[in-house]
Amino acid sequence: MIESLPKMEMPNWIESICDENLLSQVPLRGILNNSLYYPSSGFDGDPIKYLSGNIYSFIYVDYGISSNKLDEEIENRGFRGYQIILSREVTEELTPNEWTLPPLSMNDGNPMKYKDWIKRPFAKWLVFQRNDDLNSEHGAKRFSLLYLCADGVAAFQALYISNKCFPLGVAIIQPGHGFGGNWTDYTNPKQILAKTVLNNLAGKPKVLLYGGIGNRAFYQKPCWPQFSEHACFLEKSNGGRIGVWLKNT
Questions:
Q1: What's the rounded Cα separation, in Å, for the pair 236 and 173?
Q2: DSSP-derived 3-state class of residue 160
Q3: C-beta of residue 127 within 8 angstroms of C-beta of residue 85
Q4: Where are the domains of the chain?
Q5: Which of 3, 49, 79, 99 has the smallest C-beta neighbourhood within 10 Å, fewest atoms?
Q6: Closest by Cα among 78, 243, 62 to 169
Q7: Cα separation of 89 and 199, whole Å?
Q8: What sign has the CA pseudo-torsion 211, 217, 218, 222?
Q9: d(CA 142, CA 132)
Q10: Measuring CA to CA, which residue among 127, 163, 164 is closest to residue 146?
């Protein structure tokens, strides 16, 4: 948990999960509200490592990760000190409302640029629980992870805008717009992701995570100028840093 951010009590929807309701309706509103949205996430555990307790619901999106690859990562790496208490595939439950892709400009890029890189779409919802021999200093007792193989812009539109809500935070960490297979630049405040997130009529995130590997000087300032209040810097697991920025008041 990050001390400079507000601590949150575990929401009832996640605290009440038990074996008897593993196959019940997905608590979509709970998963979306006060969540962290992380497009082009790969399998980066740093946001969960640092923010569990500030946030309990994490939504990871990456169209380059297959369902089998996700299963392998969870089985081989997982999250230290946590075990899975729920794992299920999710389908149309995520998008009960009508939605459309936001209009693109020539500056946004070509969504089909890396079409051969895109894996078969899927969505999986998992809930992790902290091992009994660990305490709150290790992290939250439980957290939710919704993982989608999908386009980061389209997924934001389908999840948040169509459901008239917004995330508490957004993570832009090594998003891969150079040679990483991303068709648009998530760091650019004038391109489609930033425009979609920041023009959401339901509301705007309060927290931005921005960082990556390489020289720390690259991440001295936030990529989106609407978030200029600096909270802290975090060490990235494989080198580099992540800045935590708060939205301008």
A1: 10
A2: helix
A3: yes
A4: 12-18+25-207
A5: 3
A6: 243
A7: 30
A8: positive
A9: 11
A10: 127
The residue type of 249 is T
What does pTM read for this prediction?
0.94
How many degrees, rounded to 5, is the angle at CA 57 between CA 47 and CA 4? 50
* Amino acid letter, residue 126: L
pLDDT, tens digit (0-9, with 9 covering 90-100), for 127-168: 999 999 999 889 999 999 999 999 999 999 999 999 999 999
Q: Which of 121, 156, 146 is nearest to 59 (CA)?
A: 146
Note whether 125 and 13 are within 8 A (CB): no
The sign one gets for the Cα dihedral 146, 178, 234, 131 is positive
Query: Strands 241-246 and 229-235, how do they pair?
Result: antiparallel
Whose structure tokens read 């500056």? 107
Segments of the chain assigned E as strands: 35-39, 57-61, 82-89, 122-130, 142-149, 169-173, 207-212, 229-235, 241-246
